[in-house]
Amino acid sequence: MELLIAKNPDPDSSLPYLLRIPLSGTPLLRARDVWPRTNAVYCHPVADSEWPAEPEIVERIELRVCERRGAAIDIIATRARENRSQIVFTTARGRDMVFWQSPRTRTQSRPKTAPSRSKASGIAELDIIVDSHERYAYGFTQQRASVTKRALPCGDYAIAVDGKIVASVERKSMADLLSSMTSGKLRYAMAHLAALPRAAVVIEDQYSAALSSKFVSAKDAADGLAELQVRYPSVPIVFAQTRKLAEEWTYRYLAAAAVWVAGDSEALAGSVPLTTATPAKKGPPNATIRAWARDNGYAVADRGAISREIRDMFDQQNPPA
Description:
The protein is built from 8 helices and 15 strands. It is α+β, with helices and mostly antiparallel strands and 321 residues long.
């Protein structure tokens, strides 16, 4: 019983390998790699007719076990190392997907971590201001912190010294990140964050999730994130993988900022008063950009996302105040 891995004869495919699993009723799979070593391998089921008449075999893996159990196929190879894996048939973002994973890659994708209950930067209790408009806000119940809710001019979580904001963190889920990035709102928010002494954006997901979105192409997501980081280098974008880890990272970041302020007499330069700060401006409505584009001879659809190129040209001629 062998798992056959051959080269995909289609030169235009992004999945360079074909997997033939010795199990009746299992489709032929295109695959991104020959074994899930450091990451889960994305696969795509195809018709048996895609198996070439004279396949270029890359690897023959002798199997001891190849059994289907529900939505997964357990595979155990007859070798000492890298011998166990699983092919999982699942649904994500409304479409069928197949992943080939090993015990190691599965552990990496679902980290078994817990927030540390130790003090951050030696602070007995950190007072964190939470924006009163923040939905599903962090409670910091596992951290040594107290929470005060009030309207913040920018960001979702902040610390203040002498009534002035010195550090702030903007929280984003992956859906919110991509939506605000493609609409242009995130650019305005980061411009406001960049005016603070210290600020960051924390994402409750992995970078790879931004590149596999159903609604934004991998190119647009990668280019958009890179452009934001280059344009606002003082505001790091941190991918914390899970909500729990994002909450822990936010707590540690704000505590480190509090210690930095206490030891630097010039740290308050650029801080924003809590009482007089103006809220961050939102990006222009899509209707405004569409009207501008048509007035300038650019073709845009009546509905849906507006391309980044059109938004860039609009911003260049209509820069935010």
